Amino acid sequence: MLSFFQKKFDKLSLQELHDIYALRSEVFVVEQNCVYQDIDGKDINSIHVLGIENKKLVAYARILDRGVSYPNYASIGRIVVSPSYRGNKTGHRLVDFSIKTTQKAYDQKPIKISAQAHLENFYKEHHFKPTGENYLEDGIPHIAMIHKEL
Asked: In the predicted model, what is the mean pLDDT of residues 101-129?
């Protein structure tokens, strides 16, 4: 059964950290053929959301407080689901858990994401609203989206 947990960086085990970097690399670097600096110094100050099933990391996101990625917003980033777990609502569960965790940790602050443009409708289902035009980030079209408490 898939379970979600959240941990600060200093509470992650070495195995969990390895699995996080392996999943992010599998999807963002290999699958999406995107060469970028994944280890950007923000993981240390993040809350890490781990989706675990059968002792395996299958979904992940990181949560940052206001001012780390955006001056006026908390943010959720590096949202990723293992290819073998797509199509069964794992991504929706991950985003819902991440929103709730962000709101609890950072006092209901609005949340901003840099969403891959092809996932705009997915994030709209979670009450994110696009702001501005599409832009390229690491060679992939993205759009800024903001979530405010309803």
From this structure: 94
